[in-house]
Structure formats: structure tokens, C-alpha cells
Amino acid sequence: MTKRRITVAALLLITASVLFYFLFASRNDAEPKKEKTAATRQHGAASAEKKEPQILYWVDPMHPTYKSDKPGIAPDCGMQLTPVYAEEEDTSKTFTPGTVKISGRKQQLINLKIFEVSDQHVMKNIRTIGTLQYDETKVAKIHSKIEGWIEKVYVDYVGRLVRKGQPLFSIYSPELVATQQEYLLAVKAERSLKTSEFADVSSGASAVRESAYRRLKLWDVSDQQIKRLEESGTPMTTITFYSPTSGFVLTKNVFEKQRIDYDTEAYSIADLSTIWLMADIYEYEAPRLRLGQTATMTLSYNPDRRYEGSVTFIYPDLNTMTRTLKARIEFRNSDFSLKPGMYANVELDTGHGGGLVIPVDAVLDSGDRKIVFVQKGEGEFEPREIELGEYLENQVVVTKGLDAGEKVVASGNFLIDSESQLKSALEGMSGTEHKHGQ
């Protein structure tokens, strides 16, 4: 009996212990489960926030007609297939054909830059290069008008600077000596027959003197030399020729004891107080070129010094090889720092004006059309055909197709253009498939 009571008590104790265990264990398990459920919901929300954009399909970047449902290599060009995301395929809005939607992430990848179109004050100057040369109107060719022999050469080398009136060379000419003697006899006869009762005799002597005087003057004998001849009464065996202008000797063809005749070009002398710049102007810039236009010139070895000149002549012919025409620009050169043969940079002032200006890189020029991509919304870019005016270094004036305040793509537009053409091709292909399906 006692043993049976002990067994029953033990069974009751075990049963109570099991019930106690399950009671408290279930409560402890219930609380962590709630925490686990909340944590799971929080983790799921975070995962939803970090969820990557959904990829719809992959396309060949070079051949938009090829489309694949998985990544890989394009069979035609060997390039990686490009993914098309669901966020880029927003069909809730109606877009202009060719309009593309570029995500912010992709804009950063292609280094997209936006430029706002504005009405600016522009300088429409022509910049070009040219070559300096002698002023042709100030080059003197010196010839002897009589035959003879060179007795003395005073300016004896090329490149020498001579002044007007400076002696160049002296010449001995038998014809010149004979004319001097004739002149002296005529002067003497005129003086002696001046009081003659016969007027014809006196006038005849004066005519002979006048004739000899004119011949001496035609041979470039100066009045001072003729006066000295009258005072001395003795013909000069040699006569000296003087420089008719100031300048630098370009050519010299006389030497002592040399015989000289009418065809001999003794010297050529160029006055460099003014100098010409022959500038090449492109054909499309010709309408903005005019006589009297102000020009500013700089030299490569001294870019800080600026020379001011003006356009004095526009040549009538066009170089068919370079499609340029020549403009002659004249500059003062009082210190002779400008040398013929030098290359120079020149800027022609063609006036100022206003206009809508965009970067040159923003324009996609196919030859017959000029396209820019205009930002229409957040990440939306629409192709727009425009017309252009003058080019201004890295910018260009827009004459039609854009308004001030609009924003255009200035960098990365080639990639957007590829995306636009790809989308247009896919839309066209989808329309064809739909038509065939009907």
C-alpha cells in the first residue's frame, strides 16, 4: 500500500513538471516569435527599398533589332548586351518619337552635362593667320637713264638701310660729258648775246641752253648739280645718283668698273615704315569681310604686343585648293620690328550682336540635319531639329528650333542619340510585329 502511494505521488510530480515546462516554454517562444515577425517585416521593407530596377530584356547596342531575354554577347558585333529597365519603359506618358528616359544612375555613368540656352552678347570676330610682306606701293626700282661705267659704289650690300637723298653710285658717261659741255657753251652764248640787236640770235642761244638743261634733268641730274656746273664752268667727268626714297636695299646689281646700260636695275629699295599682312579668310567668312575693317595682329614670339591695322584690299580671286581668299591688311612699322616673311595671328572685328548660343558639342550634325536633345522632364530627353548661324569658337548661334531657358544636352549626347535610335527602331519593330499579328 505504501509502495503504491509512492508511485502515484511520483507520477503526479512528473506530470506537474511536464505541464509547468510546456506552459512557460510556450510563453517564452511566443515573445521571440513576435519580435522575429517585426524584424522580418522591417527587413522586408528595407529590401524593398534597396530593390534593383527590374530588367525587361537585353539588346545589342549596335544592332537594335536584336533582343534577348538574358544577358550575354551580341552575335553580330561581339559587344556586351545592354539591359533595358522597367523604369525606362514608362508607357503612362506620350512622348515625341525618339524621346528617351535616362535614369539618374545612367546619367552619372555617361557623364551627362546640361546647358541652359540663353540670349547672349556675342563677338563675331574672324580669327586667322597671315604672312607679312613688303608694301608694294613703297618699293623703288632704280635704273640708270644713260649708258656708262660705274666709278664708285656707295651702298655696297643688300639689306642696308638708306635714307632719301643718300648717294648710291657714281657713273662716267661720255654722252653725259658732251651734254654738259653743250650746256656750258649755250649758257656762255646766251650771256654774250643777251644784248645783241638781233632778237633771233639771242633767242636761239636760249633755246640751245634750255634743250641741254632738259636733257640733264631727264638723266636725273639735280638742279644743285647743274648750278655747280654753271659756277665751275667745267664738265663733271662723273655724276652721282641719289636714293629717291628711304628704305632697305632689296637688290643690288652694280659694281665698280662695271658697264651699265638702260636695262640694268641698279637697286631696288623698300620702305618698311608700313607693311602688309596677307591674311587667309575662309569662304564662309567672306560676307563678314569689308574694306576699312579694324584688325589686331600678334606675333608668336611676342604675344603680349598688339599691332592695330585695317583692311585695305580684298583680292577678287578664291584659292580653290584651300577655299580661302586673300585680304590685305596694312600696319604701321615705324620701328621696323615687323619683318617681311613673318607669320602672324590676326583678329578682324566684324561687329557685335546678340543671339541664342549653345556649345558646339551639343549639336549632332548628320550633314542634312542638325539635332540637339532637349530636357523635357526629370530624365526625359527629346530630339529637336535646329538651324544654326555663325560659329563662335566653341559655341554656335541658334537661329531656329530653340527658345531661351530651354536646356540641352552638352555632353554625352552621342550615347543618348544611340539610345534614341535604338528606342525608335524597337518601337518600329514592335509596330511591325503587331501589324503582322493582325
Q: Which helices and strands, and how do they pair?
A:
Blueprint: H1 2-49, E1 55-59, E2 67-68, E3 82-85, E4 100-101, H2 104-109, E5 113-116, E6 118-123, E7 126-134, E8 139-143, E9 148-153, E10 161-162, E11 167-172, H3 174-192, H4 199-218, H5 223-232, E12 238-242, E13 247-252, E14 259-260, E15 265-270, E16 274-282, E17 294-299, E18 302-319, E19 324-332, E20 343-348, E21 352-359, E22 364-365, E23 370-377, E24 380-385, E25 387-392, E26 395-400, E27 407-411, H6 413-437
Antiparallel strand pairs: 1-2, 1-3, 4-24, 5-27, 6-21, 7-16, 7-20, 8-15, 9-11, 9-14, 10-13, 11-12, 13-15, 16-19, 17-18, 17-20, 18-19, 21-26, 22-23, 23-24, 25-26
What can you tell me about this protein's structure?
- It is built from 6 helices and 27 strands.
- With 438 residues, the chain is of the alpha+beta class.
- The protein folds into 4 domains: 1-51; 90-124 and 354-437, conserved putative lor/sdh protein from methanococcus maripaludis s2 fold (Beta Barrel); 126-134 and 272-350, Efflux pump adaptor protein, beta barrel domain (Elongation Factor Tu (Ef-tu), domain 3, Beta Barrel); 145-263, no CATH class.
- The strands form 7 sheets. It has a 6-stranded antiparallel β-barrel with strand order 7-16-19-18-17-20. Strands 4-24-23-22 form a 4-stranded antiparallel beta sheet, covered by helices on one side. It has a 4-stranded antiparallel beta sheet with strand order 6-21-26-25, with no helix packed on it.
- Helix 3 (174-192) runs antiparallel to helix 4 (199-218).
- It is rod-shaped, with a radius of gyration of 49 Å.
